[in-house]
Design a protein that fits this description.
The protein is α/β, with parallel strands linked by helices and 344 residues long. It has two domains: 194 residues, Isopropylmalate Dehydrogenase (3-Layer(aba) Sandwich); 147 residues, 3-Layer(aba) Sandwich (Isopropylmalate Dehydrogenase). The protein is 39% helix and 18% strand. A twelve-stranded mixed sheet has the order 3-4-2-1-5-12-11-6-7-10-8-9, sandwiched between helices. Helix 1 crosses helix 3, helix 4 packs across helix 6 and helix 8 packs across helix 9.
């Protein structure tokens, strides 16, 4: 029997929906078919989540990720490595707390260490609370992506939101959206758009669609920033100053990049199979469109670090946490995408 990839699944913020969606997702047979999941989190939180959803799963703990490397997936069994102090059990569900922020941070770091050492083949992360992360003192990180990039020592990185091909059938390898700027105030976006930054994201988009998802010549559509792509400078000149020169440089480097195109039409063209990936200028420009196409199956993929990391495309949902109603298909999709990237 071929060894399936061992994937670290970090619990995220224990006060959010992470524990519940993990228990639900790991009961899906598609997960065991593609990988061996290993949860990084507190076992008592997992037990509470198992009870919440009425699961019959049992827990099997390991002292370290290394101890789980030879295991095969077992039905109705959740493997875990204990992360987090018992004090997190006192945190009220659905609240921001430094204790759960620290537990989420510790799980991520242990998973990164294991991935860099080759002990696990990839990482899948449940959502964290940025506010709780900052309350725990880790204010230098706006989110998972920046934390992973820092831990891996890379400056060239990006977040890609990805839909698998079954969500967008005209796209043979699925559809990805890579963001030039990410977690920052909208007023700061304009000062962070440069030709070099846009070109770098075109390179990352082409690389992951080629090396990760198997396309020989991925087609990259590049978003404009302004309405109507600036209307020849009438509504802004960022297209002429930064974006078109980046597209031209990408083309000169052998990347099949086109644009800049108005985003309201570009995303429809990409959905219909004209492009394999889109480079968006800022967070919501890419997120809103892709989530409208497939909210519950969208996957967050970190590009740049030398390890595989995927995630759900939603947050901690504190308003719905620990009610037994959280949707788990996004985590299933994230696990499947990680297993595919590991095998590429």
């Amino acid at each position: 029997m071929l060894q399936k990839p061992l994937l670290a699944v970090t619990m995220g913020d224990p006060a959010g929906v992470g524990p519940e969606v993990i228990v639900k997702a790991l009961a899906d047979p598609r997960v065991g078919e593609c990988c061996v999941p290993l949860v990084f989190g507190h076992p008592e939180v997992l037990r509470q989540a198992i009870a919440l959803v009425g699961s019959s799963a049992s827990l099997v703990g390991f002292g370290s990720p290394t101890d789980a490397t030879e295991r095969q997936a077992e039905a109705d069994t959740i493997y875990y490595v204990h992360v987090g102090d018992d004090e997190i059990l006192d945190v009220a569900h659905g609240t921001v707390d430094a204790r759960t922020g620290q537990a989420a941070y510790d799980a991520i770091n242990l998973a990164v260490d294991a991935a860099l050492a080759g002990t696990v083949d990839g990482i899948v992360t449940a959502p964290i609370s940025k506010a709780a992360l900052h309350a725990a003192g880790h204010t230098q990180y706006p989110g998972h992506t920046e934390l992973l990039a820092d831990r891996c020592g890379v400056d060239d990185f990006a977040m890609m939101l990805y839909l698998p091909p079954e969500e967008v059938p005209p796209c043979p390898a699925g559809l990805g959206v890579v963001h030039v700027t990410l977690h920052m105030a909208l007023r700061e976006v304009f000062g962070n758009l440069t030709t070099d930054a846009i070109l770098a994201k075109c390179r990352l988009a082409a690389r992951v669609m080629r090396d990760g998802f198997g396309l020989d010549e991925p087609r990259i559509g590049v978003c404009a920033l302004n309405p109507h792509a600036g209307e020849d400078g009438l509504f802004g000149d960022e297209e002429q100053q930064f974006i078109r020169p980046a597209v031209e440089r990408a083309q000169a480097a052998g990347i099949d990049a086109q644009g800049p195109f108005p985003t309201d039409t570009l995303m429809g063209r990409a959905r219909d199979g004209e492009f394999d990936a889109v480079v968006a200028m800022y967070h919501d420009q890419g997120h809103i469109a892709l989530k409208l196409l497939g909210m519950h199956r969208a996957v967050n993929v970190t590009l740049g670090p030398p390890i595989v990391r995927t995630s759900v495309a939603h947050g901690t949902a504190f308003d719905r946490a620990w009610q037994g109603t959280a949707e788990s298909s996004g985590l299933v999709a994230a696990i499947q995408a990680a297993a595919r990237l590991v095998g590429s």
